[in-house]
Design goal:
- A five-stranded mixed sheet has the order 2-1-3-4-5.
- Helix content is 27%, strand content 17%.
- The longest helix is centred in the N-terminal third of the chain and has 13 residues.
- The radius of gyration is 17 Å and the shape is globular.
- By secondary structure, the protein is of the alpha/beta class.
- The protein is built from four helices and five strands.
- Helix 4 links the parallel strand 4 and strand 5.
Length: 161
């Protein structure tokens, strides 16, 4: 009798892969972040990536990281987590988990808490120790949202499209 294939991806690899694939839709020349929201029974509820709000022409978006606030990307770009939450079409997010490339900022942490997501799996905590990161973790801890870093097994997946 033939056995099942052994070297398949697990759920965390699958959902982090979906988040990372979603990040490839971002037009941001510096930082591409994707998010994937998943139900308790491993069904994808929504995805998102960092980018301009619907209807805003991203060709007109200032992608600069430094300078006057209004001339940078920061006041215009929606983060991947917020986009994934807003892209959800009516599914209850209570008790869901979110996979994301980058640990959520304090603003996204508030949205994650408010919609009922209870777990975050993140790939990078690049801004660990910054004020936003400290506040984000305080919020998540006090509201009972678990977070853990994705355990990379070094698997590489290549898609030829």
């Amino acid at each position: 009798m033939t056995k099942k294939r052994e070297n398949y991806i697990d759920w965390d690899e699958y959902f982090m892969g979906v988040a990372m694939l979603s990040a490839q839709r971002s037009k941001d020349p510096n930082t591409q972040v994707g998010a994937c929201i998943v139900s308790k029974d491993n069904k994808i509820l929504s995805v998102g990536y960092n980018g301009a709000p619907n209807g805003y022409d991203d060709d007109n978006l200032p992608w600069d990281r430094k300078g006057n606030f209004v001339d940078t990307k920061y006041p215009y770009v929606c983060h991947a987590e917020l986009n994934a939450i807003l892209n959800n079409k009516g599914s209850n997010l209570e008790g869901a988990r979110i996979y994301v490339d980058l640990f959520p900022c304090n603003e996204c942490a508030k949205a994650i808490i408010q919609c009922g997501i209870k777990e975050i799996i993140y790939k990078s905590d690049k801004y660990n120790g910054t004020d936003e990161n400290i506040v984000s973790k305080k919020l998540l801890d006090s509201c009972g949202v678990k977070y853990s870093q994705y355990k990379d097994r070094g698997m590489e997946i290549t898609l030829k499209l």
